[in-house]
């Protein structure tokens, strides 16, 4: 089993030490990727990745994506910078925004890690989780440390991550908010771009209630509500697309 841990601090500091601490507790092949050692350019906002499935920038992002795709479990970490994630991690996320439409990481276990001097820990961990959920991954815990806390990482904190990698975890309850987010992504992806529609059909996501359903528990009422919402949203997007067509389209300037 291979675990890839992303360190998005610009130094090998506390976040790196925390990742090493986690790695020592895991009996797997463990690689820490320090984003600072890679060439990662800003997203140009051209959306070619979303519309045509390739990126116009030639740097190390493709190599990093491959590492994540080939991993059995992923750890994403960030120091708190001004109540938020580090700039390089945000840039890396932006460069992978295609995964919100067509993810290569569906169902992959992910552990979220952050360090701080004092503030912003929960906000950062929640934000990391939110991005991972939009990529269809399985969130398996959050580990945060303040700099004065020298607490060793416990096996309890790693249990869900390990169990998920080993495919021994208990059924995961998918909350209504996550089902609704899935429906929003489904409605956008199946009504706006052919390339997304093909992916959602080919992968069978189009017929699912969530990105992954194996070993999950979905409350039937939540399932009903989210599906109704998805159908409503789909209808609205279709109507809107039709209106735009009749009015001659909304021209978006391409500036790459
Ligand atoms: C640019 C910058 C912004 C920071 N912003 C915050 C902050 O908003 N709140 C906070 O408590 N600590 C803040 N810190 C402190 C770091 O979160 C903390 O030292 C963290 O453990 C550093 O991780 P590292 O050693 O892996 O780089 C900031 C540090 C830097 C360099």
Give me the secondary-structure topology.
Layout: E1 2-7, H1 14-25, E2 29-34, H2 48-52, H3 61-70, E3 73-79, H4 87-95, E4 109-116, H5 121-134, E5 138-146, H6 155-165, E6 172-173, H7 176-191, H8 194-202, E7 216-217, H9 220-246
Parallel strand pairs: 1-2, 1-3, 3-4, 4-5, 6-7
Helix pairs in contact: 7-8, 7-9
Residues 9, 11, 13-16, 79-83, 115-120, 147 line the site of flavin mononucleotide (FMN).
Explain what the structure shows.
With 256 residues, this protein is of the alpha/beta class. The chain is 44% helix and 16% strand. It is built from nine helices and seven strands; from the N terminus they run βαβααβαβαβαβααβα. The strands form two sheets. It has a five-stranded parallel sheet with strand order 2-1-3-4-5, with helices on both faces. It has a two-stranded parallel sheet with strand order 6-7. The structure holds flavin mononucleotide. The site of flavin mononucleotide has 18 residues, from helix 1 and strand 4.
Give me the CATH architecture of the largest domain, please. Answer: 3-Layer(aba) Sandwich
State the total count of DSSP E strands. 7
- Helicity range: 40-55%
What are the distinct ligands in this entry?
Answer: flavin mononucleotide
Looking at the structure, the CATH topology of the largest domain is Rossmann fold
CATH superfamily of the largest domain: Flavodoxin domain
């Amino acid at each position: 089993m291979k675990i890839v841990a992303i360190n998005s601090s610009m130094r090998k500091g506390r976040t790196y030490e925390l990742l090493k601490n986690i790695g020592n507790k895991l009996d797997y092949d463990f690689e820490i990727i320090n984003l600072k050692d890679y060439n990662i350019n800003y997203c140009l906002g051209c959306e070619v990745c979303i519309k045509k499935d390739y990126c116009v920038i030639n740097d190390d992002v493709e190599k990093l994506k491959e590492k994540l795709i080939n991993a059995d479990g992923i750890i994403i970490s960030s120091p708190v910078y001004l109540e938020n994630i580090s700039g390089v991690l945000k840039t890396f996320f932006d460069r992978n925004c295609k995964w919100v439409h067509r993810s290569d990481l569906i169902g992959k276990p992910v552990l979220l890690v952050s360090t701080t001097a004092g503030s912003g820990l929960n906000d950062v961990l929640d934000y990391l989780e939110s991005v991972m959920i939009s990529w269809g991954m399985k969130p398996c815990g959050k580990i945060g440390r303040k700099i004065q806390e020298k607490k060793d990482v416990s096996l309890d904190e790693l249990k869900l991550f390990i169990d998920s990698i080993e495919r021994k975890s208990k059924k995961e309850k998918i909350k209504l908010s996550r089902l609704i987010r899935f429906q929003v992504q489904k409605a956008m992806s199946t009504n706006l771009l052919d390339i997304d529609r093909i992916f959602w059909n080919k992968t069978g996501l189009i017929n699912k209630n969530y990105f992954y359903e194996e070993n999950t528990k979905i409350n039937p009422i939540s399932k009903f509500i989210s599906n109704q919402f998805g159908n409503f949203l789909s209808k609205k997007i279709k109507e809107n697309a039709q209106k735009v067509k009749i009015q001659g389209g909304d021209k978006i300037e391409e500036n790459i």
